[in-house]
Amino acid sequence: MAYERxxxxxxxxxxxxxxxxxxxxxxxxxxxxKDYFSFxxxxxxxxxxxxxPFAELVEDARGIPxxxxxxxxxxxxxFVNDPSLMGLCSRSQATVIQVMGxxxxxxxxxxxxxxxxxxxxxxxxxxxxxxxxxxxxEFSFTRHMLTxxxxxxxxxxxxxxxxxxxxxxxxxxxxxxxxDGRCILLWxxxxxxxxxxxxxxxxxxxxxxxPLVGRLEGxxxxxxxxxxxxxxxxxxxxxxxxxxxPVAQEMIGPSTHRKIADRLLKVL
Length: 268
Prior knowledge:
10 helices; alpha/beta
């Protein structure tokens, strides 16, 4: 069953910092003086609303500390420009990198917050010229903006999607070049449904597909794919407040975290 708290207090994520990074990570803080595994990712790797995310399940099974270097709604930008974090990953036995969507990154069309990558900051002159009828001051989040732009003109939106895909590959290649040692890509796949709205941005992770992810194959040791198409909304065992219930419905639960951990244990 799901555990719904009556108050607004979230699950205690014991947030902590590592090195000189300005990001707050999920804790408790691990001892990184001996062997450890690194995990980079967004909300799924962070384990939002889950008491034991898959990184911690791997830690329990292997008996090796697993540092969860993840952030809620993070994109590649949160990590690629963090030399302290890249150094910590390079010193670990292996780094598991969640494949994060392409929407939460700065690019030729718009800027996002350096750490809270889902926050839209500014549209470029180029984007404003393409969508002259849109008031970009109305947007605070990338998903809201992109959904609106696609609804206004799917034809013009194609150029934005192309830019996001190209920027994602370049940013991932830059990050992978900074991490020494073994790297494992974790692709939590949600295949495109047969029926979908033309205004829909597509399946998570946004704007990515097999050919695009496959371009990184030569830079990583493994690509682990886990199908989570029907896993969201399975709230058994999740811990959330009444106000968080709508968001919790969009996240993966403990059973999915166990499924992911089992897949990772086969390659770690």
